């Protein structure tokens, strides 16, 4: 049994279908429920494998300057702790690994993974087990009930919570990608170049003129240190936001909210809460999730405040960027909706 896509676009004070159903239906007739379930399941399987590899890499490769016994060290040329060094104790490594609970890329990836766990469960059970009460067996019933859509689909509070979770997941994913490609990576490249100069490695750095510096390759920092590092970086900062763009355009029919003020405010709050969470993480692990939160690296407390404000303001920008994709999707399906309405009249 395939369920028809939800294509209604008539104005209303609330969405014409509960957001839970819209998250479980593609607006495209070429993506019926069976195909949507397969796509979501495939993405979930991929994200699960990627999560395992990412955790393996992060747990076995401590970040630069992540030595808990050396608090406040922000020297970009310091290679950090070597896990194979006997002096790097198990306790120190455990403390360092706690940093994962505070790293924005890991949190962002975790939200995307959990979103697909939820939406795959809803899509699958809505197609194959529309009524959990018809399932025989106590264990089977408990599993299907856990995977099924909420009983009270019309509950406005639950709809708001899920919609906010969806918006935060997409916004965090876009923010994570933008920060890496436009802030963190350029900063790291500059410090690599300065480190090579300070170590006297002219063969690795070529000056084409007085201001330009060229490394061995444009993406040697990503692909030049083994396949696992490249896989981790690409998945954290390119594949994940790409998946969420695909989600917005093709895999759900969640519409633009009629009132965005509450969501914008909530996104600002969640972004600000992360900044606080990052400072808690530094207090617990002596590791900064972002270089721009470290006064020693950016030069002053005022610079840290400016970067933090920019981070918080990036959340609504990412939200607006996301709504642009929603607008593109609705514009593309509108002619089909008009034809369907005319045929049904």
UniProtKB/TrEMBL annotation:
Domain of life of the source: Eukaryota
The answer to whether the entry has keyword Transcription regulation is no
**Segment Disordered: which positions?**
65-86
Q: Which UniProt keywords apply?
A: Membrane, Ribonucleoprotein, Ribosomal protein, Transmembrane, Transmembrane helix
Protein's UniProt keywords contain Signal: no
Transmembrane ranges? 35-55, 106-129, 160-183, 227-251, 263-284, 304-326
Query: One cellular component GO annotation, for this chain's record?
Result: ribosome
**Any idea what this protein is called?**
Ribosomal protein S2
**Species for this entry:** Trichoderma parareesei
């Amino acid at each position: 049994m395939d369920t028809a896509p939800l294509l209604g676009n008539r104005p209303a004070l609330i969405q014409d279908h509960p957001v839970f159903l819209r998250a479980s239906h593609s607006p495209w007739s070429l993506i019926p429920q069976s195909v949507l379930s397969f796509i979501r399941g495939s993405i979930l399987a991929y994200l699960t494998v990627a999560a395992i590899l990412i955790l393996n890499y992060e747990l076995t490769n401590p970040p630069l300057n992540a030595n808990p016994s050396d608090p406040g060290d922000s020297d970009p040329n310091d290679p950090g702790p070597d896990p194979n060094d006997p002096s790097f104790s198990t306790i120190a490594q455990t403390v360092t690994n706690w940093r994962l609970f505070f790293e924005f890329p890991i949190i962002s990836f975790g939200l995307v993974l959990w979103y697909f766990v939820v939406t795959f469960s809803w899509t699958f059970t809505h197609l194959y087990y529309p009524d959990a009460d018809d399932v025989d067996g106590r264990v089977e019933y408990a599993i299907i009930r856990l995977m099924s859509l909420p009983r009270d689909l019309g509950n406005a509070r639950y709809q708001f919570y899920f919609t906010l979770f969806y918006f935060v997941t997409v916004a965090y994913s876009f923010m994570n990608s933008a920060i890496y490609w436009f802030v963190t990576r350029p900063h790291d490249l500059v410090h690599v170049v300065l480190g090579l100069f300070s170590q006297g490695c002219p063969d690795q750095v070529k000056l084409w003129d007085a201001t330009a510096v060229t490394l061995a390759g444009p993406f040697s920092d990503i692909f030049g240190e083994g396949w696992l590092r490249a896989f981790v970086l690409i998945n954290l900062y390119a594949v994940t936001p790409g998946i969420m763009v695909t989600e917005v355009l093709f895999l759900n029919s969640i519409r633009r909210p009629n009132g965005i003020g509450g969501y914008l405010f909530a996104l600002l709050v969640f972004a600000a809460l992360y900044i606080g969470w990052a400072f808690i993480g530094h207090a617990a692990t002596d590791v900064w999730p972002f270089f721009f939160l470290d006064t020693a690296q950016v030069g002053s407390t005022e610079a840290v405040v400016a970067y933090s404000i920019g981070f918080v303001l990036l959340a609504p920008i990412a939200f607006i960027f996301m709504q642009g994709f929603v607008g593109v999707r609705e514009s593309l399906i509108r002619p089909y909706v008009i034809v369907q309405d005319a045929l049904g009249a």
